[in-house]
Amino acid sequence: SYDRGSTFNVFVGKGQLIAGMDQALVGMCVNERRFVKIPPQLAYGSEGVSGVIPPNAVLHFDVLLIDLWNSEDEVQIQTYFKPGKCPRTVQVSDFVRYHYNGTFLDGTLFDSSHNRMRTYDTYVGIGWLIPGMDQGLLGMCVGEKRIITIPPFLAYGEEGDGKEIPGQASLVFDVVLLDLHNPKDGISIENQQVPESCERRSQTGDFLRYHYNGTLLDGTLFDSSYSRNRTYDTYVGKGYVIAGMDEGLLGVCTGEKRRIIIPPHLGYGEEGRGKIPGSAVLVFDIHVVDFHNPSDSVSITVNYKPSNCTVLSKKGDYLKYHYNASLLDGTLLDSTHSLGKTYNIVLGSGQVVIGMDMGLQDMCVGERRTVVIPPHLGYGEDGVEGEVPGSAVLVFDIELLELVSGLPEGYMFVWNGEVSPNLFEEIDQNHDGEVLLEEFSEYIQAQVDSGKGKLAPGFDFEKIVKNMFTNQDRDGNGKVTAEEFKLKDQEAKEEHDEL
Q1: For the segment 220-264, what is each residue's pLDDT rounded down to a tens digit?
Q2: Catalytic residue from among 268, 291, 318, 321
């Protein structure tokens, strides 16, 4: 048979062999080697075989059993590893990805997906596989390892495959299942941690910041936002992410942790992407850091308000306040308490982000409130490098400690009483008909010190005075004459008259 390059294939005990060989093969194991001596009466007798075996010849056979099966055999399954957790098993019409080593019964390797470094991907139970493999894969868990032994009539039969597998060969597949889904599957969500307080859940059009670990079903990590030390930031429900993630991120709370399992037709499909193989089920373990909607405004929650709360903050007022600043997940960003001093601003002057200007409006001294500021009213998409992440929702716990009423809008200085009719002459101390910046500054300082005038609180004195002087110095020569000098209400009246 070695000379012919093919095994001798035959049923035993059915008269297809000489009587001696029929007896000699009984009880043999695969890979067993026997030396068989057969007398002529159990071989070809007194006639022999013309030209090959002489009459009354004793025959000697050196036999090596390669394969063995019975027409009543079925697929044999031996599971040698099964995961402790098995939420789902292979059913008819499922799509699976698995690795295998394929051998004959004598251990000869004929094929291996491991050698190709690519899984075998196929539907189960619908005729895409040999019948024995269709049967052998049913009921498997992801991560399970099986040895599936298939008789030839459930494999490639009498003809073999015309290449590596000869006719009538039993096949042995050592299989590990890596992935499993059904084309009818939707996403699967497992809630791992949901905050007790959840005032709002994400909706289509919201902008989320979240961390994630992305793995395949067998646990292989393909991506992680944690390794980049940066959240993944995106709109949800609008096609900015794969369809399964778009769906899986809806209805989450800030601080929630959930597992989202996404079948390939809602993930990266048959082609895969990067480290993600084709037709792979994806598992994302996500942690929602915060979310907001572009239409959101500032949210204000008053935690304490004094009984005497008649004077309310307004644009132009000078405020002193303490605050703790944090992200929505509770991460502390900054605190005036740790610095041991208040934060001081002129409300509405652009000294803080727009959301804080809004959040400090209509507040009285002693009041405490929580102000939640969406990023478009905070530090935007860029954030503050090393301090505030991009697109972060900010939470400020504020206590207003002091309020100095500001001046009417557009004024940097006002008189507390009647304005002198000889104001220019009073400012022009040397009576030369020209007022220099030094004269102007000394005069304004004197009015403030005496209580006759008031400067806008919270601004630098020199800058205010220089700005006032520049407004009067209309020709820009560094001197103000009587003709140039006008009070603000006089300017307004002249403009009105001209109109």
Answers
A1: 999 999 999 999 999 999 999 999 999 999 999 999 999 999 999
A2: 268
Say whether 67 is catalytic.
no
Q: Domains (ranges, CATH) in the chain?
A: 19-65 (3.10.50.40), 76-181 (3.10.50.40), 188-292 (3.10.50.40), 299-404 (3.10.50.40), 413-492 (1.10.238.10)
Catalytic residue (choose from 150, 165, 242, 444):
242
Residue 222 annotated to the active site? yes
Distance CA 191, CA 163 (A): 50
pLDDT higher than threshold 60 for residue 495:
no
Catalytic residue among 110, 123, 153, 222: 222
To the query of whether residue 212 is one of the catalytic residues in this protein, the response is yes
Q: Long-range contacts for 333-340 (Cβ within 8 Å, ≥24 apart)?
A: 333/387, 333/388, 333/394, 334/387
The C-alpha atoms of residue 214 and residue 200 are separated, in whole angstroms, by 26
Find the range with the poorest average confidence among 81-90, 294-303, 393-402, 468-477. 468-477
Q: Is 268 a catalytic residue?
A: yes
Per-residue pLDDT of 389-429, as tens digits, reads 999 999 999 999 999 998 887 788 888 888 888 888 888 88
Q: What is the pLDDT of residue 256?
A: 94
Clarify whether 242 is annotated catalytic: yes
Q: Which of 91-100, 435-444, 480-489 has the lowest mean pLDDT?
A: 480-489
Look up the pTM and report it: 0.78
Per-residue pLDDT at 24 exceeds 70: yes
Identify the band that residue 492 occupies on the pLDDT scale cut at 50, 70 and 90. Answer: low
Catalytic pick among 22, 161, 223, 334: 223
**Candidates 98, 173, 212, 424; catalytic one:** 212
